[in-house]
Automatic annotation (TrEMBL):
PANTHER family listed in its UniProt record: TRANS-ACONITATE 2-METHYLTRANSFERASE, TRANS-ACONITATE 2-METHYLTRANSFERASE-RELATED
Protein's name according to its UniProt entry: Methyltransferase domain-containing protein
Source organism (scientific name): Bailinhaonella thermotolerans
InterPro entries: SAM-dependent_MTases_sf, SAM-MeTfrase_NodS-like
Transmembrane segments: none
The keyword DNA repair appears for this protein: no
SUPFAM superfamilies the record matches: S-adenosyl-L-methionine-dependent methyltransferases
GO molecular function terms attached to this record: S-adenosylmethionine-dependent methyltransferase activity
Pfam families assigned: NodS
Length: 212
């Protein structure tokens, strides 16, 4: 079947690629403003109501190696919809949600009001965590980071979040996930445990699981 170019998606990727020509901290300021604007109304991606998103969350959790997880981080947590699912799935765990949008995080804090769940404003390109996690997620976020050097940098930061033996799960649209996850695949100290393509007819996606 011929590959039909998706024009809005192409424009979207070009816009974020252009922003990624700036220094990482400046890029982060612009992304922060952009995503604050994007969150001008609640739940702009309909993460809390869309059945596709629920299917994706279930598929993400289903691929986790079974073991107790105590310290979990979600990078690009937006308004905390998946964070809430994590809090329900892992009632004993400490959970951290990271996002670049203060407005999204304010809604996340209102959504998940548990002491063991905290939300931190951070740019994954520059963030240095003060702790290591045994489980990390990054879903539907890497395509905002633009050019290859930024994907490599973000992949390094994601790897740095993990404690020895920690698990990282990356979830992005297929087939673009091949490009977005390339630097996770190549990162020294990360081993890919599985990669599953979910062939949803409209929006196929990949769940890739790594271990430090
Ligand atoms: C589509 S949402 C992800 C939703 C969530 N991961 C899920 O699957 O439910 C993408 C999020 O990435 C955040 N983001 C974009 N660039 C970021 C960066 N450099 N550092 C941290 N968060 C970023 C945005 O603010 C936005 O909330």
């Amino acid at each position: 079947m011929p590959v039909v170019p998706n024009i809005p998606e192409l424009m979207h990727r070009t816009l974020f690629r252009t922003v990624s020509l700036l220094a990482p901290s400046r890029q982060g300021e612009i992304l922060g403003r952009y995503f604050d604007w994007w969150h001008r109304s609640p739940d702009p991606w309909r993460l809390s109501t869309d059945s596709y998103e629920r299917e994706k969350y279930a598929a993400t959790l289903a691929d986790l190696p079974a073991r107790p997880y105590r310290d979990i981080v979600e990078v690009g947590c937006a308004e905390g919809v998946f964070t809430q699912a994590l809090a329900e799935t892992f009632p004993e765990a400490e959970i951290t949600g990271l996002d670049i949008s203060g407005r999204a995080l304010a809604r996340a804090r209102a959504r998940v009001r548990e002491e063991r769940v905290r939300f931190v404003r951070a740019n994954i390109l520059t963030h240095r965590a003060d702790r290591r996690f045994d489980l990390a997620f990054c879903a539907e976020t890497l395509y905002y980071l633009g050019r290859e050097e930024r994907l490599r940098r973000a992949s390094d930061r994601l790897g740095d979040l993990l404690a020895p033996g920690g698990v990282l799960v990356a979830v992005h649209p297929w087939p673009e996930a091949g490009r977005l996850h390339r630097y996770l695949d190549a990162r020294a100290g990360l081993t890919r445990l599985s990669e599953r393509v979910h062939r949803n007819p409209q929006r196929p996606f990949t769940v890739a699981v790594y271990r430090a």
